[in-house]
Design brief:
- The protein has a two-stranded antiparallel ribbon.
- 77% of the residues lie in helices and 2% in strands.
- The protein contains 15 helices and two strands.
- It has a single domain (2-8, 17-143, 210-358), classed as ABC transporter involved in vitamin B12 uptake, BtuC (Orthogonal Bundle).
- It has helices at 2-14, 21-46, 54-71, 76-101, 105-124, 135-142, 147-174, 182-204, 211-229, 231-241, 243-248, 253-279, 291-301, 314-332, 337-364; strands spanning 129-131, 281-283.
């Protein structure tokens, strides 16, 4: 959060349009794809594994969607359902190959990066690009919430967060675990409410809250709940912390690993959907370029450990904001692509180094 504040302050001083409602709206739309895919990457990193195939999975599922709705003229919901099922199947296949066969996830997903890219090219054929004109699919990233709906969502978010905090406080109190004061809970809920209101006021000054931004935040909230408030989520952290200890404790490590790789591929498919909606096409470039690296960088920069067992799903959103803000700010100031890549690489290296130093310090302290 501090780093993000520094980045925003720096670019605002360089260009007064950086924090304008219009540019912040564009920033949200820019990070929607990366942030969505990064959610799945965070889950995989929590296991201490890696998924290098997410970009290609986004591309091949986008190609499937494009062919279905453009060439075969299927309904939009059929196309989306099939692309998500393809993502699910890919995740099950790769997760099983890694967890059951025993091939390291790095190798399996590296093969997937190449293999699914080949499938994407085959599905698209000689066309190379399929323009998608279905209004429902395009509306995912081109529509904005009415002002009234935005205020309802903000109020609902504040109430939901307050209920979750109070429930957790009461649960810990009953089990005689350390708890914070009611004042601290009220402060956190108030801070979240104020931040949401400020964001809403700023975005409403342009066109409103982008639907893609709402989808991204909703996905982050859901997977944060799944990873931190459910037994399945606790098992993910346990396996990532020490797989052998988790196995001895009775956790089905194979099932957890296959499930997480499946979720990662489904999130990549959702990223492909957002990419098609934003670009109004499915092409050989969908899912390519630096998308894979940006998704992994977003997860790591947001605070997820490469060594497994530490981090939260919010890392995907925060890291995507950092990566997106740097890219957006450098574009506004007219910096060339080489500077952009150097800066992003330096930020990623700093984040990983901080994680390594933190891990070394805990090891020295016996934790």
């Amino acid at each position: 959060m501090l780093g993000l504040a520094v980045i925003w302050t720096f670019f605002q001083l360089q260009d007064s349009n950086f924090l304008s409602p219009r540019n912040l709206t564009n920033l949200i739309l820019q990070i929607a794809v990366t942030g969505t895919i990064a959610i799945g990457v965070v889950l995989v990193l929590l296991l201490g594994e890696i998924d290098l195939s997410v970009g290609s999975v986004a591309g091949v599922t986008a190609a499937v969607l494009g062919v279905l709705v453009t060439v075969h003229h299927t309904a939009w919901w059929v196309g989306i359902l099939v692309m998500l099922l393809c993502g699910l199947g890919i995740g099950v296949f790769q997760g099983t190959w890694s967890a059951v066969v025993g091939v390291p996830s790095f190798v399996v997903t590296l093969a997937g990066l190449l293999g699914w890219l080949g499938v994407q090219l085959h599905v698209l054929g000689s066309e190379g690009t399929l323009n998608v004109v279905d209004p429902t699919i395009l509306a995912i990233t081109t529509t904005f919430l009415p002002i009234g709906v935005g205020w309802v969502l903000v109020a609902g978010l504040a109430v939901l967060y307050g209920v979750v905090e109070l429930t957790e406080w009461e649960r810990r109190r009953r089990k005689r675990l350390p708890v914070g004061t009611p004042a601290s809970i009220a402060f956190r809920v108030g801070a979240v409410a104020v931040a949401a209101v400020v964001a809403l006021l700023v975005l409403d000054a342009w066109r409103g809250v982008p639907s893609a931004g709402v989808i991204l935040v909703a996905l982050v909230i859901f997977f944060d709940w799944l990873s931190r408030r459910t037994k399945f989520g606790r098992y993910i952290y346990a396996v990532g912390g020490n797989a052998e200890a988790a196995r001895r404790a009775g956790i089905n490590v194979t099932f957890i690993r296959v499930s997480v790789f499946t979720l990662s591929s489904i999130m990549a498919a959702l990223g492909g959907l957002l990419s098609v909606s934003r670009g109004e096409a499915a092409s050989t470039l969908t899912g390519g370029g630096t998308l894979l690296l940006e998704a992994i960088a977003a997860a790591v920069i947001g605070g997820t450990s490469l060594f497994g067992g530490r981090g939260t799903v919010w890392a995907a959103l925060l890291g995507a904001l950092v990566i997106g803000s740097v890219s957006n700010g450098l574009d506004l100031t007219g910096e060339p692509a080489d500077v952009k890549y150097i800066v992003q690489g330096a930020i990623l290296l700093a984040a990983v180094s901080l994680d390594a130093f933190s891990r070394r310090g805990r090891a020295a302290a016996g934790r």
